[in-house]
Specification:
homodimer; Carbamate kinase; 8-stranded mixed beta sheet; two-stranded antiparallel ribbon
């Protein structure tokens, strides 16, 4: 079982990914983002994205009801269905699902984000949370019948309401539930970079210990990303490959271990 | 088996529908529209809706690639996921699917619409077509496992590409595939009206013969709607109830035969 996490950047080569996935004869699941599309749509609709940074140093998007509307349109709507279409046109029987559908990904809504505003601690509560459980029965039935699940946010909270969640956390949970041996993350860079502004600084191999060290040394959104990566290894021993999603054959390229391999 | 077709109007009471469906202990499927949302989104994004009328008198939306983008956002994205959320929060394990997903609704792309422009016949080809086949295996598995399929456009064409299709045609095809005994159409009117501008002119009972006569006497979009209704009775003998989707309990109201019953 391979889990493919496809980044939501504008320059990700979805067509190349679809072609590669059609040629790959292995059980697989896709989890995708759509942040570039979401940002573009938000801007066009005049809905500004709010990013808050918690007192503990994690940055995250603040998801009010309108932000969830935009998420549904960009992630579960346009990006998900265009990706399903690309796969279908390559002969892959893809089925696009948000975490809400069939309660595929059930989560726990955040109680609130502790933020500092003008020196004071304030609690902001939005529609976001952490994924806690996977509807493994549904996924198994779909996989057994030859479908490729193409999964995205939102997910369902305890009461069935739509909440935003980090795709990294969803991937970690899916890995644990399905005992996936490999996680491929396709991003808008050639791999995990030593220096984010230098594409030639790809770290080709990384141990889990090194990953943990880097997490402690970082901050903000990168810290959260690294934290999610670290969590993957708490619940299993998969191989994680972070590779370029913009090249002609992103999946083939990644499975040939071009990029960063964490083990 | 009851098929619920939920109109895409702004004033449809989705919450009331979700509550009613939660209390209804019968195999069911939902097919929904989102035309008000689509029109609103198109306008906000500056993508104008193009409506063409064929030489044979049928009016339809001309779906170019951008129109399909908007459809994916409005139908498969926002409307579908908010409806799934409402159902999930009522304890109904709804699963939202476009016709593309798992190739649920496979269609045939239109070769082109013959239109008259400035007195000349011209052929316009868009991303639209007719539904031809239902993935009954997938639907059956989902129904057997207790899910409520919540279906919307786009559907897949012969090559897996996303195309627009009339929900009425999809409902007719689903009725035939699943041998549904009842079709409930929830609209923004108290039923089928003798005079479209007079809400008191509901025709409470209509025979199939009367339906056919009315089809011949009408034009444009109404003609197409009536044509789809007529087609339902070509492939089966269900009961069709057209009722108000705006009231407090739209489903209960409809199943109590308030509105128009066609048999």
């Amino acid at each position: 079982m391979i889990i493919f996490k496809i980044g939501g950047g504008q320059s990700i080569n979805l067509k190349g990914i679809a072609e590669d996935l059609a040629a790959l004869n292995e059980p697989k699941i896709v989890v995708h983002g759509a942040n570039a599309l979401r940002d573009e749509l938000s801007e066009k609709l005049g809905i500004s994205k709010k990013v808050v940074t918690s007192v503990s140093g994690y940055a995250s998007v603040f998801s009010d009801s309108k932000a969830i509307d935009v998420m549904m349109m960009a992630y579960a709507g346009l990006r998900n269905k265009r990706l399903v279409e690309l796969l279908q046109s390559q002969g892959v029987n893809a089925i696009g699902l948000s975490g809400l559908d069939g309660c595929l990904i059930q989560g726990q809504r955040n109680r609130g984000i502790r933020v500092k505003e003008n020196g004071k601690i304030k609690i902001l509560r939005d529609f976001s949370g952490k994924p806690r459980a996977v509807n493994k029965t549904l996924l198994t039935v779909l996989l057994e019948q030859g479908y490729l699940p193409v999964i995205t946010v939102p997910i369902a909270d305890e009461n069935g309401f739509a909440i935003n969640s980090e795709n990294d956390d969803i991937v970690a949970l899916l890995q644990s539930a399905l005992q996936a041996t490999t996680i491929v993350q396709l991003i808008e860079a050639p791999g995990f970079l030593e220096n984010p502004s230098d594409p030639d600084s790809v770290i080709s191999r990384l141990t889990i210990r090194e990953l943990r060290m880097r997490e402690q040394q970082s901050a903000g959104r990168i810290k959260r990303k690294l934290h999610a990566l670290v969590k993957i290894f708490e619940n299993g021993k998969p191989r994680v490959i972070i590779a370029d999603g913009r090249v002609e054959h992103p999946v083939k390229n990644a499975l040939n271990k071009k990029g960063t391999v964490i083990q």
